[in-house]
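It would be a great kindness if you could assist me with a short task in structural biology. The matter concerns a single protein, recorded as an amino acid sequence and a row of backbone structure tokens. Kindly check, if you would, that the fold set down in the tokens agrees with what the sequence suggests. Thank you for your consideration; the sequence and its tokens are set out here:
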Amino acid sequence: VVLTQQEYADQRTALQRPGGWAKAAAVARQGVMNAFAERAVVEAKMDRASYPGGGALVFMDNTREAEEFVRLAQSIVGSEFRVKMRDQTGGQDNIDMSLGIVVTIASDVSGYNMQRLGVLLSGVYASNANRRHQMLGRIHRVGQIRSEVRYITVVAANSILSILLQRHRATDTLNMSFEQMAQSFLASDIGI
């Protein structure tokens, strides 16, 4: 996510005042949240156009941010479909076709199926590979009708998090290469 010119100007103004760091950070956070909600709505609409009843699963850092995201995304999408927090009590979120965006928190990564959704967007980058796989596993599982699902991590451009994300992705790619190479060696050793 790249902040708008106005958001950059608001940050510069905030930084010129005593104690302006908190205000500048709030401007950046809100800019990222706005862009994230807009992207989630676009992705959910695209998925629903190809797969009626589809949509997006969104992971946020905490409940307060998740609730803010629900309000913001619903205001963008209007009445086209619903946006709501995931019902963690075993509700009907996976079969409720009126839900176009289901929002949950980063610690809520296991024990439920959302295979009717085709896009996962995360505003939180789980540094633990197992947690990343668990997040993706909510939509990429048995029963998924799509041959491909999309996994999108939304971070601010030119930030520490964007650098970490690039490095983790490079490491994940390298790990996949090693796994493929190991499978090739195993297959040749047993004569497959």
About this structure: The chain has a mean pLDDT of 82. DSSP finds five helices and five strands in the chain. Strands lie at 56-60, 82-85, 99-105, 119-122, 150-153. The longest helix spans residues 20-50.
